[in-house]
Amino acid sequence: MITKRIIPCLDVKEGRVVKGVQFIGLRDAGDPVELSTFYDEQGADELVFLDISASHEGRKTMVEVVKEVAGTLAIPFTVGGGIHSVDDMRTILRAGADKVSLNTAAVKRPELIREGADYFGVQCMVVAIDAKYDDELGSWRIYTHGGRTPTDWEVTDWAKEVVRRGAGEILLTSMDQDGAKNGFDMGLTETVNNAVSVPVIASGGAGAKEDFVDVFEKTRADAALAASIFHYKETSVEEVKKYLWEKGVRVR
Predict the structure, then answer these.
(1) Structural domains in the chain?
(2) Is residue 11 flagged as an active site residue?
(3) What's the rounded Cα separation, in Å, for the pair 147 and 229?
(4) Mind listing the pLDDT tens digit of every residue in the chain (252 residues)?
(5) Which UniProt keywords apply (predicted)?
(6) CA dist list (Å): 1 to 72, 98, 252
């Protein structure tokens, strides 16, 4: 049986970890290097580092911070934000990342996914999808630039497209649930799971350890990602994993 993964996420802005609700109202959550070390020691399976303002502000991911974080970790490390070319990917991977995450750049130029997959392998290519339910569309619409810009893409159409182009994994964030702490978006998660064959990481809405059990029992998500409940010590990776084992969900 494939074991489920628990992944803390560091949303980084100007060198500090931040967290908001539905992508706005950001508040400070700590130093990325200190938090990375803490999560590694707690037994996190992977870590995701997203420079959430990089695409919006038109600058590159903070390579020096990535190097510092990578130097503390013994677990896989995914980095996204401001990655627009194969050269950018190479820089991030050389800085210590194991995978790169594309979002805005992939929507702008989808062929970038295939270029990265051909050069580094599909196992290095994560596509982050930020989705919000749209009544007019009758489904979830894709957003870019840190949730600021709506696109014409419907979520399953885009998920299938990125996999066709070489994405090895999807990081799926519910903008409706992000920071709300009332549970993952089961409908969104399972809709995308049904559309693709690659691993899907559920993100957005974790508020308690019970939410992790729900997402793994009610969807086929391969991993669950959370930020604020870990950053602000409302629960811990260790506590979540112990609870999952008690409920019969296999974790690493």
Answers:
(1) 5-247 (3.20.20.70)
(2) yes
(3) 21
(4) 589 999 998 888 766 666 555 444 455 556 888 888 989 999 999 999 988 666 544 455 578 888 988 988 999 999 998 899 999 999 999 999 999 999 999 999 999 999 999 999 999 999 999 999 999 999 999 999 878 899 999 999 999 999 999 999 999 999 999 878 899 999 999 999 999 999 999 999 999 999 999 999 999 999 999 988 998 889 999 999 999 999 999 998
(5) Amino-acid biosynthesis, Cytoplasm, Histidine biosynthesis, Lyase
(6) 30, 24, 11
Out of 11, 88, 98, 211, the active site residue is 11
- CA 30, 38, 98 angle in degrees (round to 5)? 95
Q: What does each C-alpha distance from 65 to 61, 164, 179, 194 come to in angstroms?
A: 9, 32, 24, 36
In this structure, is the dihedral angle defined by the CA atoms of residues 11, 14, 18 and 19, taken in order, positive or negative?
Answer: negative
Q: Which of 130, 178, 211, 222 is catalytic?
A: 130
Identify each DSSP E strand in the chain by its residue range: 5-13, 16-21, 24-30, 47-51, 77-80, 99-102, 125-134, 139-144, 149-154, 169-174, 200-203, 223-226
Pairing of strands 169-174, 125-134: parallel
Looking only at the bridges linking them, the beta strands covering 139-144 and 24-30 are unpaired
Residue 161: enclosing H or E segment and its boundaries?
Answer: helix 155-164
Tokens representing 147 are 């949730």
Active site residue 88: no
Q: Are 9 and 48 in contact (CB under 8 A)?
A: yes
